[in-house]
């Protein structure tokens, strides 16, 4: 191989990867080379005979990671967004190597001792906090272990990496393996002709592939009770052995056991404690207190909502009671009665309008930034779009790319990816990517969104803003490199602007006529903000508590039956509530068993406590806070700070106090 575009710094603006030139065969050689170069740089730092300084230690460590981060971010973008069999195989090979590589740093006592010996008393706040975080990370990674225990830790991490990658691979396959298939279109009564045609396969049958979570969106439209229930049953039982190649049960048990063993090596009672100790929560008891207190309120509200749905079902000639698979169907009818019917609002929610006249409009008003299309800068698929982001004075901030559409192999859900992190010492500006899974329209057609899709666009763009507005000295402090239970704060907060009357009027226009969404629909949307929160909160807290339950186990407490453990755990927490299944079951819970949010799914709700409080701060201001003055205060005191200081300090810099947990219940309409 004479040329490897991953190993050559891109000459495109902002060092945008040469997506079109990068092939699967480039990835492994590039990863191996940048790992070797970074290890050589670490060795140079570790053996430096000079006393440690910020320049020869902190900055040297940061510089050592620049090329590594750039190559790995590109590779993992392609793994997640394209997900071909070839890329999946490469990802599986890289996982254990990456774990071993990371341990080579985190278990290097020489580097740890250099950082310990640093005198940063006169350094800037970000550098002082960098040292504090790094020492804490070393300790939580096992730097003080004996050599034998450190070797075992390395082996566990390598094995976990491979198991997590295999879990994601199988869970992704399960969405297809467990698809609902019928030859009878009458079983799909309620779907319009276009949607029905989209489900028809070459053999004449109708196939509904599953989305990433338990209840499937299409259940809200299908009038046949048994079909709704069969679709949910297919979703809830995936990964439980019907299809051997997507059975994840054994992986769940192995991962849980290895994480428990790892926690014990590090001197913790459980993996949940390991995770909480490095996050804002600090302790797993605080996590459980939040989740259970909110869950009990939500379950009580589910019981009240059930009575309203029963009234609807009694008027439905097709109904034969209400089971779990029916809940979202009748909830959608109830929402429609309140004026929010997806079929009526979708014509006003065209994707390009939502992006250009919604998220971009709000960001310009609040933060003074603008977005210029750059069609000359391509992505890895033709449907991707690119914008150059500029500040009010014309200064360039970075690039924003978007990959909105579903494709075979692409991971489920939606996410933000920092392709290149912006930071001062490297002189780089951010390249930020948002990924979604909206159905791609046919040529010449437009993409119309559901309201949930609109919230997803605003949510993921909140993450993007966190990356684009970063102003930190170090790359490791930039943007979303913050505690996991804080990272969802900017994204959830950005959702509030989807509802703001001025923003909504700017993007919610009929895709054919250009007419503004009628006032009665706008009012209904505004009133619907807390609609269905009993259901949504229950399914979330059930999943989050299942996550905690697995990771509170000791190494000798791992069960043999995944389904039985889930059931007993939820009963123990007092929220079995069979009408509302968890948003994810253990067999397709990629957040936790795929890595990234293990023992950390709670973080969405922890961050929402902060969100609810800051929303109240905005509402106390002129025009509901939709002003440059309010936006710039948030930008300067929080969004731009990344992890350059403790996130709670950024929050208190705005609010003047710590957050009020009650604000969460008020936001969700669950306060008594």
TrEMBL record:
Keyword line: Hydrolase, Metal-binding, Metalloprotease, Protease, Zinc
Keyword Transit peptide: no
Co-factor binding comment: Binds 1 zinc ion.
GO cellular component, one term: cytosol
Xref: InterPro entries: M3A_DCP (IPR034005), MetalloPept_cat_dom_sf (IPR024079), Neurolysin/TOP_dom2 (IPR024077), Pept_M3A_M3B (IPR045090), Pept_M3A_M3B_dom (IPR001567)
Bias (Basic and acidic residues) ranges: 650-672
GO BP: proteolysis
Record-annotated Peptidase M3A/M3B catalytic domain positions: 221-669
Entry annotated with the keyword Protease: yes
Protein name stated in the entry: Peptidyl-dipeptidase Dcp Metallo peptidase. MEROPS family M03A
High-level lineage: Bacteria, Bacillati, Actinomycetota, Actinomycetes, Actinomycetales
